[in-house]
Fold:
Amino acid sequence: MKINKNFFSENLKTLFYAFIIAIIIRSLFIQPFYIPSSSMEPTLLVGDRLFVTKYSYGYSKHSFPFSPPILNDRIMFSSPKRGDVIVFKTPADNRTDYIKRLVGLPGDKIQFIDSNLYLNSSELIKSKISNKIKIFCGNRSIDIYKYEEKLPNGKKFHTVYLKDYSYQNSDVFNVPENHYFFLGDNRDCSKDSRFLSSVGYVHKDNLVGKARFIFFSSDKKIGNFFEFWKWNKSIRFNRTFKMIN
Structure:
């Protein structure tokens, strides 16, 4: 059988175009992310795979793979809202992706007093839901209280706090202009804006996108994807296409 001399070149062109289209979609519209840690439990579990919309807050150099220096500022900027679950680049290296919940806006004052969260000198309303729930911190199970927390804009979500030795008191965090303050929902198992040397206040240019929904979730503690005989236990079917609150 005679092979067309243009066969290879045409296929290379097809692959190249497909690659360019994938880069455009990933940079401008939507990008998948994997959850590797328990810092956002119970909202997000280790093994969740989710989609993040890149257009939610406009675009910066961090919207593109490898953060090329093609934008000096954020363009088409749209301010995020309190309570949004957001992927951002950590200020420490401008490379590592973190996902946390936005709590503090520019100009806000945030403080923990006796394990209670205060925003601009007002304690956030939280109602205990349960004290019997299994939550992880890394590979260990921890005893927690589960709450429904409410932000001033009416946004409600679930958080968990250690029953003993919870994060007690802090200095006042003054959020600078054009920066944001993030917390993990697993409050005593999260490296977030409270840790100024590693995360701290996040500049608006470091925002990557808004977490929208989980498209797949599996529990690696039970089995990996290739162990199909364990799928009925390892795959969390109830989390498939679950919207992220």
Notes: The CA atoms of residues 41 and 207 lie 21 Å apart. The longest strand covers residues 207-217. The domain at 7-243 is CATH 2.10.109.10 (Umud Fragment, subunit A).
